Amino acid sequence: MGKEKVAIIGSGNWGSAIAKLAGNNVKKHNDVFDDSKVPIWVFEEEYEGRKLTEIINTDHENKKYLPDVKLPENVVAIPDLLETVKDATALVFVMPHQFLGKCLDQLEGKVNKDAKAITLIKGVGVDGADIHVFADVIQDRLGVSCSALSGANIANEVATDRFSETTIGYRTEEEGKMWQKLFQTANFKVQLIDDVAGVSLCGALKNIVAVAAGFIDGLEYGNNSKAAIMRIGLLEMKHFCQEFFKDVKEESFLQESAGVADVITSCLGGRNTRVAKAFVTGNKSFDELEKEMLNGQKLQGIHTAKDVHVFLKARDRLGAYPLFDKVYHISWEGLPVAKLTEGL
Ligand SMILES: NC(=O)c1ccc[n+]([C@@H]2O[C@H](COP(=O)([O-])OP(=O)(O)OC[C@H]3O[C@@H](n4cnc5c(N)ncnc54)[C@H](O)[C@@H]3O)[C@@H](O)[C@H]2O)c1
Ligand SMILES: O=P(O)(O)OC[C@H](O)CO
Q1: Residue of 5, 116, 206, 238 with catalytic role
Q2: Which terminal Cβ of the chain has fewer Cβ within 10 Å, N or C?
Q3: What dotted CATH number matches 6-196?
Q4: How far is residue 330 from each of residues 20, 93, 213, 215, 286, measured CA to CA in Å?
């Protein structure tokens, strides 16, 4: 069997951080991976008067989305999606979930049939009473086996080599080990578990909890309240998974980075929490705050709250998830934020 050719699809804050790890690891494991080039798809835009692809390929830094972090020189930015995945056998999906659908429209029927994929995207696909994790969506649309990676992973901390852990929910153990080689470093520990759905759902649902934690910060309710929100949020996450995805493993919530640890890190310092706090204190819409505070990076939590609301409403189960429901109503329907804890 030939060496795996990696392609990274997405080049935001997390996409760029993961490109750094992958670019270095293909050299370290060049018995497994082709180390000559790691193509990364860049949604082309101008930044400080230059094309972002040109900046990345010349300065070896994504100055817009991950400034001050050098990328290995084998990470090559490409503006054309199909050119990025040409010949690739190991596809890494890492873009804000809002853009996955359009990307799959372009890729359908165009990727190597022997390829494997992994998604690092945090979100869920909802269509009325149907819900799907993105690993299944990618697998079904592209006809390739797709695993999922998620964990307590603030991108800037991982990119600057501060000790972190993550979880891969694998499709097959062999694939899990291959992905582990691509991402693990001395300071980025990758655990493996046979639970694609559990890992994916933890990553998606914790973003709703992180928005609630930001509301608590904005209200200045203090640490007891925030801890309570994390606890209630984790229980709603677990309850949701066990109600709608029968095979998820309890370890994914309680023992893996993807579960409890990601709830903690996101609620302490993630973008969703920071922007939700500003929503309470700043009297501005989430759209305005995203633009002002995140320099092109994208919020996921309020959109996942809406997706989950649509799904739970269609299933007539809103009452069983009061925290998720409150986050939706505060974010999208003008419910006063002080109502967050009422009835929890
Ligand atoms: N940033 C983190 O700390 C972090 C950590 C773990 C997981 N994640 C997850 O990884 C995923 C990707 O997050 P990120 O931080 O890399 O992205 P990001 O929030 O930095 O988003 C910006 C990216 O979106 C792209 N983009 C903007 N408009 C677009 C369009 N119309 N079509 C396609 N792409 C467009 C930009 O080019 C840029 O690459 C998300 O699901 C996120 O929840 C993020
Ligand atoms: O900054 P957030 O809120 O998008 O969270 C980032 C990561 O998902 C934390 O693990």
Answers
A1: 206
A2: N
A3: 3.40.50.720
A4: 37, 31, 13, 9, 11
Identify whether 206 is a catalytic site residue: yes
Q: Show me where the domains of the chain are located.
A: 6-196, 198-339
Output the residue whose Cα is nearest ligand 1's atom 39: 12
Fold agreement between 6-196 and 198-339: no
**Which residue, chain included where needed, has tokens 């929503």?**
279
Q: Does the pLDDT of residue 283 top 90, yes or no?
A: no
For CA atoms 262, 263, 266, 268, give the dihedral sign: negative
Distances (CA, A) of 139 to 129, 302, 312: 20, 26, 24
ipTM of the complex: 0.99
CA distance 77 to 39: 6
122 is in an annotated binding site: yes
CATH number for 198-339 (one of 2.40.30.10, 3.30.70.1150, 3.90.340.10, 1.10.1040.10): it is: 1.10.1040.10
CA distances for 291 relative to 275, 277, 288, 297, angstroms? 10, 15, 5, 8
